[in-house]
Each structure stands twice: as structure tokens, then as C-alpha cells.
Amino acid sequence: MFTFKFFTSIESIGQSTWDAFAEKHSPFCHYSFLHSLEATGCTGGKTGWHPQHVVIYQNLQAVGILPLYKKTHSYGEYVFDFAWANTYREYGLNYYPKLVSAIPYTPVTGARLMTSSDIDESALITALCDTLQQHLKKLSISSMHWLFVDKLTSECLAQNNQLQRLSVQFQWFNKAYTSFDNYLSHFNSRKRKSVKKERLKISEQDVTVQRKHGSELTEQDMQFFYHCYRQTYLKRSGHSGYLTSEFFQEIFSKMQNNLMLVMAYREQQPIASALFIFDNNQLCGRYWGALEEVSSLHFECCYYQGIEFCIEKGIKVFNPGTQGEHKILRGFEPIYCYSNHHLAELAFHDAVAKFIDTESKGLEQYKAQAEQLLPFKKE
Fold this sequence. Notes:
Blueprint: E1 2-7, H1 15-22, H2 31-39, E2 49-51, E3 53-58, E4 61-66, E5 69-71, H3 82-90, E6 98-101, E7 114-115, H4 121-139, E8 143-149, H5 151-158, E9 163-173, H6 180-184, H7 189-204, E10 207-213, H8 219-237, H9 245-254, E11 259-266, E12 269-278, E13 282-290, H10 297-313, E14 317-319, E15 333-343, H11 346-372
Parallel strand pairs: 6-8, 13-14
Antiparallel strand pairs: 1-3, 2-5, 3-4, 4-7, 5-6, 8-15, 9-14, 9-15, 10-11, 11-12, 12-13
Helix pairs in contact: 2-9, 7-10, 8-9
């Protein structure tokens, strides 16, 4: 018998309880990352991300946690449901608020439901879905969404009337490469020459690039990175970004050993920066910005330096972020990502099910076409 308790802040749960379940998962799931978001105002308040985290109990003992938010918009999720919200509005219904189990602003597949190793997760998911559906009715919330869950969890959720939806990302896989040149040796000749030419452009423009991680990082580096991050958002979106300078200072303080920064310099002055978060299994490219326009610098800082870092550290997977077909020609392979959705209104739930079915067929074709464009030699 499972029982569930909702908390409106991660601090009220406490780091020891949270990390007892999260520490074996990616750094994005850890208390330090999620608490930093809340403590610096990147979630909570007027952000539209209102914590509703769930602690799961069995026989009065905590046996699991679920990061959960009540959302009043769909920004910062990277699984797009704006059309669903518009349809609700056309019928005079409120799509917001909704419940979302996700890592805010982070489209990285990973654990959402985190439990003790001896828990029957299939039985737990059934009980949890029932509780969440009751929660939707109690608070007049339209829907429940699970974003970037692993495949097995997604399939179990689908068996509990949480519709499975696919999306496609491009990721790099370390196949025991010994160096970047060794990696390129698996490309066909034309694509290999193209990458080498692209990397050569950097030095030809009098730019040097350096990777820093762990104790090599300084507060000054992080301050410069934030300046670049802010400039990117101002240029693209007209606002300064979802994340604050205080947030990046917090994770620098608490998670320094999980951070890697790529810095680009001209005449010893920094001109661009990209931030990565990593553990022993995965490198994730998160944010980038440049103060000058330099041909191919984005590819060098955000992709090639990350690949070199993975080869150097023996990291298995490199997730450079969402979208971007230009990643294919640099060896990033298309993979499926999974989300699950339950809409309280039965008619809309059924309509979304049909939409997802049609969308999935198109994504299957898209993924197959992308695979044909990969630069690797035909074995």
C-alpha cells in the first residue's frame, strides 16, 4: 500500500531524503540542481513553475520521489502542446494550470519517478497515476504530463492511460573512440574533410578554444558565461533568459565537479562560451553564447569540444540539446525521446490520442530519413 504527499518546495522535503533516491541518477535530478532553481527564483513565484513534488511512502517509510510542477504556461518544456492549449481555449475550457513531471528548462531524458531498488515500480506507477488523476479533479487541473522519461517508464505509463508521445533528438555515442581523428576515420571521405575544414577555420580566424572543468573553473569564467548566455536570449527572444546569474553561481558553488565550460578567446580575451553538465555516463550541452560572430565557432564549442571531452573521459553519451538537423552531418544520431500525457476531459484525451498516432507515423519517417544522412562509412 502506497501513500503520497505533495510538497510545495523541495526544501521542505530536505536534501537527505531527496538525494537518497536521486543521487544514482543524472545531476539534473539531484537536490542541488533543483533546489538552486527554486532558491534563485527560476522556479516558483511568478515563473509559472510551481513545485508540487511528491514523496511516496510505504509502511510510513519514504520509498520514492517525483519532481512535479503545476504549470500556468508551456514554456521551458520542449515538448510542445501549444496547439492543445489553443483547442481548449476555443471550446471555452482552461488548459492551464496543468501538472508536469519534468526537470525545468532541461530537455534531457532521465528518471522522473525515483524509488528504492526493491520497489515494484509497475504497481507503484498504477497507484501514482490513480492519485494524480484524483489530484487533477480536486484542483480543477486539466492534465498530467511526463516529459523526457525513459522508455521503460513511458511504456508502463502508457499501460495506465498516460498517452505515449514520441519526439526526436540527435545524440552522439562513444563507440570506444581513442581520439577525435579516430572518430573521424569512421566518416566517409567527403564528410571527414568537411569537418576538418570547419575546425581549421577557428585558428584561421585567430581564435583559440579551451575546455575547463572542476577546479579549473573560476567565478570570473561563470560570470563571463552568463553574459554570453544572456546575450543569446536577448538576440533571439528579447528577454534575458529563464535562468539568472544567481542560479549559475549556485550550481558553480554546489556542482562544480559536474560542470564543463568551453571558452573561446581572441587575443587572450574571451569572446564566447558554452556550458555543459556531465557525470560518468553522459555529457549534456546546455547553453551557449558569443559576443562576436565567428564562422563555425558554434560547431566547435558546442559539438566538437564536447565530443573530444567524451573521448578523453570515456563518457558514453553526448546530448547536445534539442532539434538541429545540422548535428546529423557531425555524427549525432537520431533517437526517440518519450513523453506521456493524460487529459482529464475524455473527449480531448481521445482527440490527443489520434493526434499522437498521426504524429508518430511522421516521426518514424523523419527518423529514418535522418539516419540515411549520417556521415559514417557504410559497413
